[in-house]
Amino acid sequence: MNGRVIGGRYELSTVIGQGGMGQVWTGYDTRLDRRVAVKLLSPAALTGPRTAADELRRRFVRECRVTAHVDHPGLVTVHDAGSDGDDLYLVMQYVDGADLADHLAEHDPYPWEWAVCVAAQLCAVLAAVHAVPIVHRDLKPRNVMVRPDGTMTVLDLGVASVLDSDTTRLTHTGEPIGSPAYMAPEQAMGGAVGPRTDLYALGVLLHELLSGNVPFAGSTALGVLHRHLYEPPLPLRQVRPEVPAALEALVLRLLAKDPADRPSGAHEVYEALLPLLPARGTPSGPMDPTRPFLRPHAPWPAAPRARPPAPPVPPLPPVPVVPPQAAPDPRISVQAPVSRGADVAGAVEEVKRLLGEGALTQAVDMLGGILPAAAAEHGEGSPVVRILRKQYASTLLDDGQYRRALPELRRLAADDPGNASFRHDIALCLEQLGETAEALAGFRAVLPAFEQGPAQDPVRAFDVRRRTAQLLIATGRHEEGHAELNRLLLDAERLYGPYHPLAAELRRSLEHQRQLGRES
């Protein structure tokens, strides 16, 4: 189905998720050139009497509209919904980051402060959802994304309820809707579910973050559900003594068998977490879930500025074509790189077309698909691969995908250590990703190349000096930063005159810093 266009504008690319209800694809909104996620309901879900299928379609569209009206930054934005032939589709925001299960695996043991921040953000989302009212019914780490700025995004809101007209019933297979490991006792028994059902799942999730394991595991789904119904959870401080007693008590309340014994709502859980949240300060690194509380409303990554003009990337090269046995598909999937020279050639032509139309997002993903095939065909060190890699890195930067651009630029710089442009763009990526110390060192190291020698570029040198000054201020070295801004202002006035836009911008920046100094 790769290359299929849904609704006349959403081009499907790669399957990223699959379940009993259908598939989730990465796709492209060809009208707005943005990456999206497209959920297609399985045709099997629509089988049955025609009246029942028609009613399911009406309820699906109605549910999508309700979900779209839940306004909260911790929920995926719904862009569109409808039908395409016999298929129902839901077009949503594509969320960059790692799901919470992978984030936990990468940071085991998970700091309890991080777990508190995750839970607090999820409480804010659940409060908005329950006010609709909607019950998520499948809150678990795989349905929570940790974005690069540390914020949580909850996925799959309301989709399960669409396929069951009565939330108190079991599915046609006799199993409750949801994931057994995170399922509240009343949900496991097919009873009425409500907001406190989601709070139980939040308790399971918190227990898993703090202990590394769900509280109730087993070899079969029925065995897990039995433990949910009859076994008490293990108190967390028996396995993590450093966990605050108040946090352990809250998790035990969330995991109460009787919904009436759990907190009254997500607001109450948030209030219980509030004293445990970290004080304002500096986040420990990228994708730190404490960041929204350590620096509330602070921009992250920093708002990108226009990149100074860079030397043009050579045009994409012609690629030798091996006669194919069958006509190649010019649409190259991001996760399914091609393996024949003819496919590479076709993809190169498609990339040229996309770049010409300004479709950067699609061009980026197609270049990522071309590179492995081109390297296998022509060799990693070939001119063809090197030019493709330069184009890939440049397009990633232009599209603001700094995390993906960084390893490509580092590879290019390792092959050509004398190229100042690569080192400059590496520092730019580090700046945008919040790695201020590394970015500062990188800009300082590359500055001499732009001030003298073959790569001399006064415009870029001024930009590097300005970024250096701002990074110095951001790292607390205010005097050094202000001194550099003053030197830069004097040089700008000497070279361009006092009324040049650069000089005016520097004066505004200095005045802003002085005002901040007076207020602090």
TrEMBL record:
<keyword id="KW-0067">ATP-binding</keyword>
<dbReference type="InterPro" id="IPR008271">
    <property type="entry name" value="Ser/Thr_kinase_AS"/>
</dbReference>
<dbReference type="InterPro" id="IPR000719">
    <property type="entry name" value="Prot_kinase_dom"/>
</dbReference>
<keyword id="KW-0723">Serine/threonine-protein kinase</keyword>
<protein>
    <recommendedName>
        <fullName>non-specific serine/threonine protein kinase</fullName>
        <ecNumber>2.7.11.1</ecNumber>
    </recommendedName>
</protein>
<feature type="domain" description="Protein kinase">
    <location>
        <begin position="10"/>
        <end position="277"/>
    </location>
</feature>
<dbReference type="Pfam" id="PF14559">
    <property type="entry name" value="TPR_19"/>
</dbReference>
<dbReference type="InterPro" id="IPR017441">
    <property type="entry name" value="Protein_kinase_ATP_BS"/>
</dbReference>
<feature type="binding site">
    <location>
        <position position="39"/>
    </location>
    <ligand>
        <name>ATP</name>
    </ligand>
</feature>
<dbReference type="GO" id="GO:0004674">
    <property type="term" value="F:protein serine/threonine kinase activity"/>
</dbReference>
<dbReference type="InterPro" id="IPR011990">
    <property type="entry name" value="TPR-like_helical_dom_sf"/>
</dbReference>
<dbReference type="InterPro" id="IPR011009">
    <property type="entry name" value="Kinase-like_dom_sf"/>
</dbReference>
<keyword id="KW-0808">Transferase</keyword>
<dbReference type="Pfam" id="PF00069">
    <property type="entry name" value="Pkinase"/>
</dbReference>
<keyword id="KW-0418">Kinase</keyword>
<keyword id="KW-0547">Nucleotide-binding</keyword>
<dbReference type="GO" id="GO:0005524">
    <property type="term" value="F:ATP binding"/>
</dbReference>
